[in-house]
Amino acid sequence: MSVNSKLYEGKAKILYATDDPEILLADFKDDATAFNAQKRGSIENKGMINCSISSQLFQQLAMQGIKTHFIDSPAPNLMRVKAVKIIPLEVVVRNIAAGSLCQQTGLALGTVLSQPLVEFYYKDDSLGDPLLTSDRLFLLELATPEQVAQITHLALKINEFLKQFWEKCQITLVDFKLEFGVDSQQQVLLADEISPDTCRLWDIAETDTNRRVMDKDRFRRDLGNVENAYQEVLQRVLKVVESYKAE
């Protein structure tokens, strides 16, 4: 597979064209951003760690019947993916109150929600990725009603699997962000990544509200030991995946 021109560079990845127009190469970067890129930095080995975690989780989700853009990972920080047109929505699934949900509703941090909450945000940095109502989503024609229904169903199905998977890793899945795209056959596929950059993850064995954090909140909140937390997540993921293979 030959790599051609750079198609796009985002905050976390660079996408390259290949000799097959249906396949792209995603290069996961070590760059770290927070607060809509107002805070910038770097996390050592983040690209390799997030690519490895995402690769494992995409493969596990495929076994659950979830179609994703993942093809394979030719190097620790590289992922071959199906070319998709990204639907400009950030889909957030929440199991426990944290982050903006607490800030905007007054719910106490750590409040367990009676059922998972699925939220849609407009994927537009210039607007600050605002939370959307259904009417605004359709007004802006960001997705069809059928796509929104399908994405909501998939998000909840992904949540059910990931909650169980992370629990086997001795990690609580607080909330997470998903992105979806449409391929050349008009199929909706799970895209982007699933990693400590896009999930809020708490160590089940840790009660201290700072020490339990195993995700990008360590970078956002200047808690330190960011790479160590990411590495620990990767090691736990690999251990659980190996246990699945042994069954």
TrEMBL record:
Pathway(s) where this gene product acts: Purine metabolism; IMP biosynthesis via de novo pathway; 5-amino-1-(5-phospho-D-ribosyl)imidazole-4-carboxamide from 5-amino-1-(5-phospho-D-ribosyl)imidazole-4-carboxylate: step 1/2
Domain (SAICAR synthetase/ADE2 N-terminal) ranges: 6-236
Record keyword ATP-binding present: yes
UniProt GO molecular function: ATP binding; phosphoribosylaminoimidazolesuccinocarboxamide synthase activity
Catalytic activity from the UniProt record: 5-amino-1-(5-phospho-D-ribosyl)imidazole-4-carboxylate + L-aspartate + ATP = (2S)-2-[5-amino-1-(5-phospho-beta-D-ribosyl)imidazole-4-carboxamido]succinate + ADP + phosphate + 2 H(+)
Record GO biological process: 'de novo' IMP biosynthetic process; cobalamin biosynthetic process
E.C. no: 6.3.2.6
CDD domains: SAICAR_synt_PurC
Pfam annotation, one family: SAICAR_synt
Name of the top EC class for this enzyme: ligase
Keywords: ATP-binding, Ligase, Nucleotide-binding, Purine biosynthesis
Similarity comment text for this entry: Belongs to the SAICAR synthetase family.
Protein name in UniProt: Phosphoribosylaminoimidazole-succinocarboxamide synthase
Native organism: Dolichospermum compactum NIES-806
Gene of this entry: purC
